[in-house]
């Protein structure tokens, strides 16, 4: 007889007598293993909670300890950043054993640390040094590339290795990752903006975290521009081509606002369809063709 691996032991305390007992419970009846997610204004979770605690029996203790050590070294990671610190068999376990994330970390629904996992009990909103863990998300819309999964990469032949630097952006290599933390951006030009003390604040906000609005917009624009150029041509742009991103704050923000307005107008025009005059001409042509066919 082999016990169902999905059954876990749960300690029960009788509220009236105080007696302690143990029962077997199916894990799916306890919790689905999804990671704890909070909104910007909600308090920081200090622990995974009693509803997730029984899931600890379903995870590899050695792997859980390794994750806890990674969070001790750095309280905020992207998922890809953590996976890049693990061995191939550990990566496969992480993909097949989702509850392990929920036992030692949580996520934000919104704000400058969304799309990253945070150590339970750590609140970046109270730590000005957490600016380095803020994220930049990029999407390659013009020339999308096929992104092999970590599982596929791990199962490749011994002669080829998965990209363990895919969570870093150096401005030279195309990365499969779409989310980068500021501490993982090594591109020299972008690094200057990140490291400039005048670009940082002592209190954070939901939109830009501990960065000024101009600095946050400048960093995102630089990373997206360089990444898109790499995807389109395979070559990194020269610093001289990035001068628009280094304009004084007010002038730069003006360019950003104009670009955003133009982009919204293009979307509206596309949604409205062809010009009204063009539609009238098209209808007249249709009527003329119809008469010709009738005659």
Sheet of most strands:
4 strands, mixed
Number of strands: 10
**Major sheet: order of its strands?**
3-5-6-4
- Quick one: overall form? globular
Structural class: alpha+beta
**pLDDT averaged over residues:** 80
What order do the helices and strands follow?
EEHEHEHHHEEEHEHEEHHH
Overview of the structural elements:
- By secondary structure, the chain is an alpha+beta fold.
- It is 39% helix and 14% strand.
- The chain has a 4-stranded mixed sheet with strand order 3-5-6-4.
- α7 packs antiparallel against α8 and α8 (213-233) packs across α9.
- The chain is globular and about 80 Å long.
- Residues 141-159 have low confidence and may be disordered.
Short description:
The protein has 295 residues and is of the alpha+beta class. The protein has helices spanning 27-30, 61-73, 79-83, 88-96, 99-104, 150-154, 188-195, 213-233, 249-272, 276-294, and strands at residues 7-13, 20-26, 36-38, 76-77, 105-108, 117-119, 135-137, 179-181, 200-205, 209-211.
How do the helices and strands line up, and which of them pair or pack?
Layout: E1 7-13, E2 20-26, H1 27-30, E3 36-38, H2 61-73, E4 76-77, H3 79-83, H4 88-96, H5 99-104, E5 105-108, E6 117-119, E7 135-137, H6 150-154, E8 179-181, H7 188-195, E9 200-205, E10 209-211, H8 213-233, H9 249-272, H10 276-294
Parallel strand pairs: 3-5
Antiparallel strand pairs: 1-2, 4-6, 5-6, 7-8, 9-10
